[in-house]
Design a protein that fits this description.
The complex is a heterodimer of chains A (302) and B (281). Chain A is mainly alpha-helical and 302 residues long. Helix content of chain A is 72%, strand content 4%. Chain A has two domains: 14-67, no CATH class; 71-301, MetI-like fold (Orthogonal Bundle), CATH 1.10.3720. In chain A, helix 5 (74-105) packs parallel to helix 8 (153-181), helix 6 (112-120) packs across helix 8 (153-181) and helix 13 (255-265) runs antiparallel to helix 14 (270-301). Chain B has a domain at 72-228: MetI-like (MetI-like fold, Orthogonal Bundle). Chain B is built from 14 helices and no strands. Chain B has helices spanning 7-23, 25-33, 38-43, 58-63, 71-103, 106-119, 123-136, 145-165, 170-178, 183-194, 196-212, 215-220, 229-238, 245-277. The chains are: A mainly alpha (302), B mainly alpha (281). Chains A and B meet through helix 1, helix 2, helix 3, helix 6 and helix 7 of A and helix 1, helix 2, helix 5, helix 6 and helix 7 of B.
């Protein structure tokens, strides 16, 4: 504060002091909504994960029991495995295809704007609607082989991969196009003069120069994969379910959906679901912070 | 230096034309089936309409009242909630970001870091407690749910606005202050017009989020009375197998057509907004 009040810097006072009087208009409404929509639910959520409760009002502190139940729950472990596998597969599939498309579209080809528009389009359709559209397509295809989407866990898994790839490739493509267009022309010119072949230019010049875009897209696909909910719910809703270690396990469930369905089992599971949500939050937070760390350490190097 | 379009680029154009046709197939399939009767969709969802299976606009007429809930009512709620929420987010978060950047008090700093923090918290973390809070404060109607969107969406918006405002020269605001502008006039007449590109980017990102959001309104609203389009579609899906697929396809068509039309007109802004918002992680 004292630094800002430095009398030598009169300029700050011209803007700074008058605004402060208007805090009730500029910051208080947003802060109030933020408390209602985020801070209070977040704090209460952490507290309730240590409680047995039906509604928050009748919460009863039980310690880490919910966490023990969550981590030993076969459905949650299975959802974690599914989510990890799903995130890894989608990272590779989405990034390779979207980079290839972006690379091709930044070459001089006729109609590249139109193609870009078409590839991006699925992003605008909500996850629930997409899930419904694709479940009908998959069922129609599988019908020809006398089976259906929720007959086998692998159908649901790969179906979800196709759906999410179709939705997100356009989004990542946009980021890659922006990255590719920022590669300085003189570096490419130098490579050409030195007689670099097409693949040499791609792997030794272009890819190192778009590393920031690759980092961004890799983490976006990773966190999107971990947080996926709507598409999972609308495509298979976790079906088919099987009995595993004496408990019902929904085989195509990802973490977010598992938390949601745990809450709906019965009121005895509300605390467990909240504990799962806290574990889920910690996982996503670690991923996001790793991204921040990697992005900022790259910026220092450049 | 090079010829405008080389042979390889012509081959690429042909390839991408085919690729794009495959890409729009899922949407095309919805269009085609929305004109076929239920029995024929069950028979073969990929067949083109024939004189027997073609039903004209019947599916659309049925789709309007389908699923025990009028489609237009859910569309109305969707439009109201999205427009109001995005308006509130743009207005209040840009004001807050300006305050945070210019005032730099301890409270402002803490709020800024809380906003950053909120961006990495998945919705599942707060969904039960948020629903409960919304019920207690009577924010569980379409008319009040925008307040919740403002609260949960503030993080990204404040972050993006702050990033832009940090790059604005202070001198312009000082000049306005010397000319006798109070903070409110300075903000609305000087700062806000300069924020236009960010307003568009943030507006588009938040609009795509609120319009397509399923879980928040599903949990918060009383869904026997209030449904948004995603809730409506998920309800039809819930009764899959017994439902009239033709009418369902018509409903899906009515749900996505407005978005696609808006996209075709504003794609320049949308694509720019997405590229700018890629930082959100």
């Amino acid at each position: 504060m004292s630094k800002l009040r430095n009398p030598g810097k009169k300029s700050v006072d011209l803007v700074h002091d008058p605004i402060k009087k208007w805090a009730w208009l500029f910051i208080v409404p947003t802060f109030a909504a933020f408390c209602v929509g985020f801070i209070w639910p977040f704090i209460q959520g952490i507290y309730l994960s240590f409680c047995n409760f039906n509604v928050p009002a009748d919460a009863e502190w039980i310690g880490i029991g919910n966490y023990v139940k969550a981590l030993t729950d076969a459905g949650f472990v299975n959802a974690f495995k599914n989510t990890t596998a799903f995130a890894l597969v989608t990272i590779v599939v989405i990034n390779v295809i979207s980079f290839a498309i972006a690379y091709a579209l930044t070459q001089k080809i006729r109609g590249s704007n139109l193609f870009r528009t078409v590839f991006f389009m699925p992003n605008l359709i909500g996850g629930v609607v997409l899930g419904y559209i694709w479940s009908i397509i998959f069922d129609a295809i599988l019908k020809k082989y006398a089976t259906y989407l929720t007959a086998d866990p692998s159908y649901g898994f790969w179906g979800l991969v196709i759906l999410v790839a179709w939705q997100q490739i356009g989004y990542m493509m946009i980021i890659y196009i922006a990255g590719l267009q920022a590669v300085p022309e003189d570096i490419l010119e130098a490579a050409r003069i030195d007689g670099a072949t097409g693949s040499q230019t791609l792997f030794r010049v272009i890819i190192p120069n778009v590393m920031p875009s690759i980092t961004t897209c890799t983490f976006l696909t990773l966190t999107n994969g971990f947080k996926l909910f709507d598409q999972n719910l609308a495509l298979t809703a976790g079906m088919p379910s099987i009995m595993m270690e004496g408990a019902k396990v929904n085989t195509t469930e990802l973490l977010a959906l598992n938390i949601y369905s745990t809450y709906n089992i019965s009121k005895n599971y509300h605390g467990v679901a909240q504990a799962k949500a806290v574990i889920f939050f910690l996982l996503v937070a670690v991923l996001a912070l790793t991204q921040q760390y990697m992005t900022s350490s790259k910026e220092v190097q450049q | 230096m090079k010829k405008p379009y080389s042979l390889s680029s012509k081959i690429l154009t042909c390839f991408f034309t085919l690729f794009c046709l495959v890409w729009i197939f899922p949407v095309a399939q919805v269009v085609i089936n929305s004109f076929k009767s239920n029995a024929y969709i069950n028979l073969d969802a990929f067949a083109l309409p024939t004189s027997e299976s073609f039903v004209g606009w019947d599916n659309y007429i049925e789709g309007l009242t389908f699923g025990n809930y009028p489609f237009l009512k859910s569309a109305g709620y969707s439009v109201f909630i999205s427009v109001t929420s995005v308006f509130l987010i743009l207005l209040f978060c840009s004001m807050t970001a300006w305050y945070i950047v210019r005032v730099k008090s301890l409270f402002a700093r803490i709020f800024y870091y809380l906003c950053l923090f909120s961006m990495i918290v998945p919705f599942q973390m707060v969904m039960f407690t948020l629903t409960d809070t919304a019920d207690k404060l009577h924010l569980n109607t379409p008319w009040t749910i925008p307040v919740i969107y403002l609260g949960f969406g503030a993080g990204l918006a404040v972050f993006m606005f702050s990033g832009f405002i940090k790059g604005l020269p202070l001198e312009i605001e000082e000049a306005a202050a010397i000319d006798g502008c109070g903070p409110v006039r300075t903000f609305f007449c000087v700062v806000l017009p300069m924020l236009k590109p960010t307003l568009i980017s943030v507006g588009i990102l938040e609009l795509m989020w609120v319009w397509n959001d399923y879980l928040l309104p599903y949990l918060v609203l009383d869904i026997t009375e209030y449904r948004t389009i995603p809730i409506h579609v998920q309800y039809l899906k819930g009764s899959y197998g017994t439902v009239d697929l033709g009418a369902t396809m018509a409903v899906i068509m009515m749900a996505i057509l407005p978005i696609i039309i808006v996209y075709l007109f504003c794609q320049k802004y949308i694509i720019k907004g997405v590229a700018a918002g890629a930082v959100k992680g």
